[in-house]
Amino acid sequence: MSKKKKSVLFISSVGGHLTQLMQLKPLFQEYDYYLVTEKTVVTKGMKSEHPMSFLVYGARNYPVSYLFKFSFNFLKSLGIFLKKRPDVVVTTGVHTAVPMCWIAKLFRRKVVFIESFAKTSSPTLSGRLVYPIADLFIVQWETMLKHYPKAVHGGSIY
């Protein structure tokens, strides 16, 4: 009897966060994995290589439209979560990932958050929102342990 692979949902916003998440690509073969990110010209091409879903891209610098996009993404994240039922959610963050992390925690699933490589001295908003519920919180810079004392210093993922 073969052991069933754990189901892992990897989620991040586009740009540097997605670049960091894709550094974990060697792990994908170890799990029944699924990717979630924002839909852009760049990410649409990834769908032929990876099982994935897209959320709506939304920048916080437009507060009114962001509120609607964030709400839509929350509902879409719930639908993706209920469809995929991952055992673990792994994220390199930002706003797109926060609802999925909280949804996972509500369903008693594990949450792994990797704080951004770009943050060396101050926490991200998404990090602060997910830190209290993360089962494993990883910082890439030792200096970040002062902001996240229960975190693990994992070093750079690059």
Describe the 3D structure.
- This is Oligosaccharide biosynthesis protein Alg14 like.
- Keywords: Endoplasmic reticulum, Membrane, Transmembrane, Transmembrane helix.
- With 158 residues, this protein is α/β, with parallel strands linked by helices.
- The chain has one domain (7-153): 3-Layer(aba) Sandwich (Rossmann fold).
- The protein has helices at residues 16-22, 25-28, 41-44, 63-84, 98-106, 125-130, and strands at residues 7-12, 32-38, 52-55, 88-93, 110-114, 136-139, 152-153.
- The protein has a seven-stranded parallel beta sheet.
- Helix 6 (125-130) links the parallel strand 5 and strand 6 (136-139).
- The N and C termini lie far apart (37 Å).
- The relative contact order is 0.15.
- The mean pLDDT is 93.
Brief characterization of the structure:
35% of the residues are buried.
Using brief descriptors, characterize the structure shown:
single chain; 158 residues; alpha/beta; Rossmann fold; seven-stranded parallel beta sheet; 7 strands; globular
Note the beta-strand portion. Answer: 15-25%
Decide which structural class fits the backbone: alpha/beta
CATH topology name, in short, is Rossmann fold
Number of helices: 6
Mean pLDDT: 93
Describe the largest sheet: 7 strands, parallel
CATH architectural grouping: 3-Layer(aba) Sandwich
Euclidean distance between termini CA atoms:
37 Å
Poorly predicted sequence stretches spanning 5 or more consecutive residues: none
Oligomerization: single chain
Quick one: how many beta strands? 7
Fraction of helical residues: 25-40%
Please indicate the count of domains.
1
From the alpha-carbon coordinates, what is the Rg to the nearest angstrom? 15 Å
